[in-house]
Amino acid sequence: MRLLYTLAWWALLPFAFLYLLWRSRRQPEYRRHWGERLGGAPDLAARQVIWVHAVSVGETRAAAPLIRALRERHPDHVLLLSHATPTGRATGAELFGQGVVQAYLPYDLPPFVARFLARARPVLGIVLETEVWPNLMAACARRGVPVYLVNARLSERSARGYARFAALTRAALDRFRGIAAQTRGDAERLVGTGARGARVTGNLKFDVTPPADTAARAAELSGRLGNRFVFLAASTREGEEALLLDAWRAAAPPDTLLVIVPRHPQRFDAVAALIQERGLALARRSEARDAPADAAVFLGDSMGELAAYYAACDVAYVGGSLLPLGGQNLIEAAAAGRPVLIGPHTWNFAEAAAEAVARGAALRVGDATELLQRLGELRQDAALRRRMGEAGEAFARAHRGATERVLAMLEEALPTERQERSRARG
């Protein structure tokens, strides 16, 4: 099965580079570092390397508490952080600066992954969430590199997809030294798909803390937004903005500013065009000026400021959930103490979303019309907003601690310096 998979990869390889060129029309960064896609990682053969793979923005942010803990507890090791997207790479640079070495993960073909491992020479591999690459895992097994799948999640929909390639998936999952799952449901689905076992360690995203300058950025943003009620539509995906804007044009609550922060930066201009097409007065974060009093929509076309937007808003909708896209991370909004609205499609965070609703931290809506109805109710009820915000903070606090549980598993393969000194004395 892996041979057929590899042959398919070779056949599709030219189209992979055509895809990079196509994506580079909007994101020129896709034209850079092509050698790394072929295994040309930085040469770290003389160093002790811990390799962490975080495919894109969400995984990179989730990895932040773990990476910081690894740097603190293993300062003699180099952290190699690999990605698949330019936005993930930019997020890693923003969060960690020169504290990590960055590279793209190579395409999953034997010579490329072998070259990557020969140059990086990791003593430990850590893969975030749901990245399972058969040839990469086989190459790590041959080189004796222990690899762990952490913060692992597997929705019912993804489990059904993996089941279509059961032999290939089972062989790849079987090569992980250990699996740290977000929830019991994720663990059960992973085992059902072929993993030998999975520990439930919780979701690292509950341990993510806002950047140190969040309060200052939020204060500056609030000044830009003016003395108005602020409704934040965060991490919106393609198709959602049109639904939101049509509903907003028809029934916007009075004296309320809609702030839209698209999930993907390459869509900033496209979303601006959608707003202007509907005749709604627009202000943009990139213009670095105060929103005019008549602005109906403020476009958050900046990177790395989502925590500040949550701190500056009154109510937040978390995107990717009005359409069948699986939903984006609602934990950050709840932890910020803001009332959260979500749509019907939240399978990427199924258990977190269900618990947030059950605890009173979030409200689920069926469509954009109901979203604005709920917003209007919250607009008029400060006590309800306060209760939801407090429930969100309590919900986030109750689930912290995943980082330490994951570290305990990883350090079975990578002992702490304290453990090494203890063994030496013994």
Keyword list:
426 residues, alpha/beta, Rossmann fold, 2 domains, seven-stranded parallel beta sheet, globular
Structure overview:
This protein is of the alpha/beta class. It folds into two domains: 22-202 and 401-425, 3-Layer(aba) Sandwich (Rossmann fold), CATH 3.40.50; 214-398, 3-Layer(aba) Sandwich (Rossmann fold). Helix content is 48%, strand content 15%. The chain has a seven-stranded parallel beta sheet, sandwiched between helices. A seven-stranded parallel beta sheet has the order 10-11-9-8-12-13-14, sandwiched between helices. Helix 5 (110-120) crosses helix 6 (134-143). The longest helix is centred in the first third of the chain and has 22 residues, at 2-23. The protein is globular and about 65 Å long. The model is unreliable at 416-426 (pLDDT under 50).
Instruction: Tell the overall outline.
Output: globular
**CATH homology-level superfamily of the largest domain:** 3-Deoxy-D-manno-octulosonic-acid transferase, N-terminal domain
Question: What is the terminal-to-terminal distance?
Answer: 47 Å
Computed CA radius of gyration, to the nearest angstrom: 22 Å
Number of helices: 19
CATH topology of the largest domain: Rossmann fold
Strand order, biggest sheet? 3-2-1-4-5-6-7
CATH level-1 class of the largest domain: Alpha Beta
Domain tally: 2
CATH architecture of the largest domain: 3-Layer(aba) Sandwich
What structural class results from the helix and strand content? alpha/beta
Helix content: 40-55%
Proportion of residues in β-strands: 15-25%
Quote the average pLDDT: 93
Uncertain residue ranges? 416-426
DSSP strand tally:
14
Largest sheet: 7 strands, parallel
